[in-house]
Specification:
single chain, 46 residues, mainly alpha, 2 helices
Amino acid sequence: MFKNLTTNSDIEWIKSISEIDQQLYKMYKLSPEEVAFIESMIKPMN
């Protein structure tokens, strides 16, 4: 099930990208291994 990504969202979209990432990892209940994999594959946005 996908969450609503509008202004009524559980995510605070005004935060930094890394803080939003952490909120999304928690929302989707990702394991530390899954988070490490994602972070190893995705280049940081500048």
